[in-house]
Amino acid sequence: VNVDGKPYVASEHRIFRDCMLSDVPNFMFCIGYFNISWTMKVDLVGKHLCRILHHMKETGASTVCPRLPAGGLGEPPALEVSSSYWVRNWHLRPKHGQTGAWQPLVTYEADRHTLLEAPVSDECLHFTSALTNGDMTASVDLRSRL
User: 4-58: per-residue pLDDT in tens?
Assistant: First the structure.
């Protein structure tokens, strides 16, 4: 898989809001809960996707992409899952961060707030619009519109 012409290497990316990957535009995924109903998390992520799409429509954005903060995220949090199939390929997976929207979402009540009630816009979530004029394509940063 390539992203913007560069090979995608999962371990080089971080997980944003438990459903997006740093520097991977227009992509969401879902991993349900391990300790309660899987579908509860899937439902939250699906609704969050709808909120993002609505925001993109309102602002004229064509692309959304999480970007790491300038200072980075530090070391990923310790692995809290002990299943061998999960631990065995941990070094190959994208990791979470220690703070804010980069932390793992593990409780329904907090996740519901983060995904359904907190503002969609975030300093690390970049919305852009591609403007095409003949062969020239420009990217416009829409954060100033938020």
Answer: 888 999 999 999 999 999 999 999 999 888 889 999 999 999 999 999 999 999 9
pTM: 0.83
User: How far is the C-alpha of 20 from the C-alpha of 18, rounded, in Å?
Assistant: 6
Tokens of 25: 């535009």
Give the closest residue to 42 by CA, choosing from 50, 65, 131, 95. 50
Alpha-carbon span 139 to 116, nearest angstrom: 28
* Token digits of residue 82: 């002990």
Burial of 68 (0-12, 13-18, 19+ CB in 10 A): middle
Q: How far is CA 79 from CA 49, 74, 85, 86, in A?
A: 26, 15, 13, 10
CA–chain centroid gap for 21, Å, is: 5
Q: Please give the DSSP secondary-structure letter assigned to residue 122.
A: B
CA distance 58 to 56: 5
3-state secondary structure of 73: coil
Structure tokens at 107: 């409780």
